[in-house]
Design a protein that fits this description.
Blueprint: H1 3-28, E1 29-30, E2 33-34, H2 50-53, H3 56-59, H4 74-103, H5 107-126, H6 128-131, H7 136-143, H8 155-164, H9 179-190, H10 194-204, H11 211-214, H12 228-237, H13 243-274, H14 286-292, H15 299-307
Antiparallel strand pairs: 1-2
The chain binds protoporphyrin IX containing FE and N'-Formylkynurenine.
């Protein structure tokens, strides 16, 4: 089809839509009020509704400010945390499934899950701008009511760190008063991380993964294994021949990057809100959080960058 024919076809199509729209406007919207279609279901006395399916009475009754008198901004604080926890629930669901798919050599499904997680991470990182509207003065007016509660006690956050390979048994005692959370973290501590599963997958695909890495104690944090760097160098320098492995490596790099961006935005929000005060959870605060920026899930995938082209 020539360019002229395409544009005249497009013009005809647009004017058709225009006519259609005008007609609909004339017929169905009067006084800027939309007429409701006859078929719209209104009786939910014996049907599942939006609210019942989503358990909204439960969800929307879970915002209970503790400040007295109630501080206007505590609702923001609660909802920022609750939405984070909801998204973390999905992140955990996807990452745990991705680890299983890797174990089953189903890389495609694992990558699809990781792609979804990356979008959630972006949403979570963006969301910090909402909390940044909370001024230090406003926060100081209800901070005292939070007692020793702290994000440090987020079981789902810790679980995500564990699934990604940043295991730390010393985190567990914090959850002793919550048997369900404690059991979940114990289970994840003992299970191979997504990186362990990926390296085992690579080994099954014929890549030369050292036995010391495959047999590592998975209850500990993954530590930099220099022997892995030549393997990744090979994959990166022959990406076209190892596309699936190469793509998976880059997806993991994105995951770690996104995780660190969330940590950084948290740190900056903390800094602008409480400065150098100690945390309600008992840590030094900003100084403690800064140290997390030195942690890494997939050190060899970053180390390989130094080697590329050499
Ligand atoms: C004004 C808002 C916030 C302040 C001032 C703040 C402050 C802090 C501080 C000082 C810590 C260190 C632990 C402690 O001693 O308490 C911490 C840890 C943590 N916070 Fe927040 N936080 C804020 C918002 C949030 C939000 C919205 C989340 C989302 C769930 C969150 C999640 C976490 C997590 C997961 C940790 C543990 C981090 C780690 O172990 O590296 N925080 N926070
Ligand atoms: N650790 C914070 C308090 C805080 O932010 C917080 C308190 C209760 C539940 C979640 C929280 N979020 C992150 O730490 C502080 O020291 O002000």
């Amino acid at each position: 089809m020539s360019t002229r024919r395409i544009s005249s076809w497009l013009a005809a199509d647009c004017s058709l839509h225009q006519a259609d729209n005008n007609e609909r406007l004339d017929v169905s919207v009067e006084k800027n009020t939309r007429k409701l279609d006859k078929g719209i279901v209104r009786d939910f006395s014996s049907r599942m509704s939006y609210a019942s399916y989503l358990q909204l009475p439960t969800l929307l009754s879970a915002q209970q400010p503790v400040s007295q008198p109630e501080h206007h901004d505590e609702l923001l604080f609660i909802i920022q945390h609750q939405t984070t926890e909801l998204w973390l629930k999905l992140v955990l669901h996807e990452l745990r499934s991705a680890a299983v798919w890797l174990r089953e050599d189903d890389l495609g499904s694992a990558l699809k899950g990781i792609a979804r997680v990356k979008h959630i991470q972006k949403t979570l990182t963006e969301q910090w701008s909402v909390l940044a509207t909370l001024t230090p003065t406003e926060y100081s007016q209800f901070r005292g009511f939070l007692g020793n509660s702290s994000g440090f006690q987020s079981a789902q956050y810790r679980a995500v760190e564990f699934v990604l390979g940043n295991k730390n048994r010393k985190m567990l005692p914090v959850f002793e008063s919550d048997p369900q959370a404690h059991a979940m973290l114990e289970e994840l501590l003992a299970a191979p991380s997504i990186y362990d599963e990926f390296l085992a997958y690579l080994s099954r695909q014929g890549f030369n993964v050292p036995v010391s890495v495959l047999d590592r104690d998975v209850t500990r944090a993954h530590e930099f294994a220099p022997e892995l760097v030549p393997l990744f160098k090979h994959i990166y320098e022959n990406a076209a021949d190892n596309w699936a492995a190469y793509e998976a490596c880059e997806e993991l790099v994105d995951l770690e990057d996104n995780f660190q961006l969330w940590r950084f935005r948290h740190l900056r929000t903390v800094q602008r809100t409480i400065g150098m005060k100690t945390g309600t959870g008992g840590s030094s605060g900003v100084t403690f959080l800064q140290k997390a920026l030195e942690l890494t899930f997939f050190p060899e995938l970053f180390a390989v960058r130094t080697e590329i082209g050499q």
